[in-house]
Amino acid sequence: MLGADCSIDEVRELFGRDRFATEACACRVIEASRGHAVCEFDIAERHLNAMGAVMGGAIFTLADFALAIGCNLGEQPTVSVSNTIEFFSAAKGTKLIATCTSDKSGSSLGFYTVDVTDDLGTPVAKMTATCFRRPK
After folding, report:
1. Rounded to whole angstroms, how far apart are CA atoms 8 and 45?
2. Domains of the chain
3. How does pLDDT run along the chain (136 residues), one tens digit per residue?
4. 8 Å CB contact between 27 and 39
5. Least packed by Cβ within 10 Å: which of 31, 33, 52, 109?
6. DSSP character string of 29-84
């Protein structure tokens, strides 16, 4: 994976290979550092469910994308093994923003929280994740 001192362009290049997130959902990387990432997408028709709200799967995809970046930079290759998401409110704005934060980063396990809000600051969802790091 990428080192903790990599550039945002290197992060965008590597994680641009996450085609479902970047192509199907149009997720973008805004910030990235060890244990932290901010990603977003502009809410479009493709993100909406039959009731006109952003589909839970689209929200989860954005949160998972931010998690992938936040838990891998400067770390051994890391994958999530358990995720829980709670949906708080429908988005009111035009954009969703996911912010990943490391709660504890160990040598084999990492624990992360991803908060999803809209561009108006409305809390939309919170995902918690346990991640496994491949041994060196």
Report:
1. 28
2. 8-133 (3.10.129.10)
3. 788 899 999 999 999 999 999 999 999 999 999 999 999 999 999 999 999 999 999 999 999 999 999 999 999 999 999 999 999 999 999 999 999 999 999 999 999 999 999 999 999 999 999 999 988 7
4. yes
5. 52
6. EEEEETTEEEEEEE--GGGB-TTSSBPHHHHHHHHHHHHHHHHHTTSS-EEEEEEE
